[in-house]
Design brief:
- Helix content is 42%, strand content 14%.
- It is an alpha/beta fold.
- Strands 2-1-3-4-7-8 form a 6-stranded parallel β-sheet, with helices on both faces. It has a two-stranded antiparallel sheet with strand order 5-6.
- It is globular.
- The protein starts with a helix and ends with a helix.
Length: 266
């Protein structure tokens, strides 16, 4: 069979195009990062959807695990759930998905399990981000640092022999858009009581992470978060950011801005 010069040229052109596409994909993949986004109390992996979509559109690998007993894993609610359970949710994700060079992000209560998980996955984490989050120290318990309302609800649940405590109204998170308030309200589930009763074990792994960041939603009143922001702002190896025009759920109110910050700190 005779092959025309035009066919050869067309084939060569297609091969060159394929090679160029492959090179572009390789280049894109080389610049991609892995993000592990951990939600706060009463929430679930669902709350990250806007940020996750934006990160994936930029070519990044994104995990949004739901902690045991909440949201799509609320059927697993049990008296056996404690802080170690949620720490292991994160540690096992790193193990089974071969997560390396990751940006580990914790929102609000999520600051507890990421602080514990970093003790076990430190070599696999390049950057850790506390997003309007708790920053516990060794030996502290959730009940020690909770707001007065959360402490009251936790103790009331314990007194009744219950294994979980109800979520507050979504409006308490100061979400800006009324439709988003309704959306978040429809997704909230009860928080396991046991996670607030177990002391966290920390040996300084958090301090050894190469990049450390605290992001504060300054329009949301929370004195404890203000104190943590001020404490790390004084440290040269931390970066701090103040996000405005946002309630506590920054991933809902300001997903674009948050995506920018996470990529910047990757």
């Amino acid at each position: 069979m005779r092959t025309s010069r035009r066919t050869v040229l067309a084939g060569a052109g297609a091969a060159a195009l394929t090679a160029a596409t492959a090179e572009a994909q390789t280049s894109s993949q080389a610049g991609s990062r892995t993000f592990v986004l951990v939600h706060g109390a009463w929430h679930g992996g669902w709350c990250w959807v806007r940020v996750a979509d934006r990160l994936r559109a930029k070519g990044h690998r994104v995990f949004t695990p739901t902690l045991t007993g909440l949201a799509d894993r609320s059927h697993l609610m049990s008296a056996l759930i404690n802080l170690d359970t949620h720490i292991n949710d994160i540690v096992n994700l790193f193990k089974w998905y071969d997560v390396k060079d990751a940006v580990l992000v914790g929102h609000s209560y999520g600051g507890w399990p990421i602080s514990g998980a970093i003790e076990k996955v430190l070599p696999q984490v390049a950057s850790i981000v506390y997003l309007d989050a708790f920053m516990p120290e060794n030996g502290q318990k959730g009940i020690d640092l909770n707001t007065e309302r959360s402490r009251h609800d936790l103790l009331a649940a314990l007194a009744k022999g219950e294994v979980s405590r109800p979520a507050p109204p979504a409006s308490s998170f100061k979400i800006k858009n009324a439709e988003d308030v309704a959306w978040v309200q429809s997704k909230l589930t009860e928080q396991p009581v046991g996670v607030g009763l177990q002391p966290i074990v920390m040996t300084g792994a958090r301090d050894r992470v190469a990049k450390k960041t605290y992001i504060r939603a300054v329009d949301f009143p929370m004195p404890a978060f203000d104190r943590w922001l001020a404490s790390v702002k004084a440290k040269p190896d931390w970066a701090t950011y103040a996000v405005t025009d946002s309630g506590h759920d920054v991933m809902v109110d300001q997903p674009g801005r948050l995506t920018e910050l996470l990529v910047e700190r990757a």
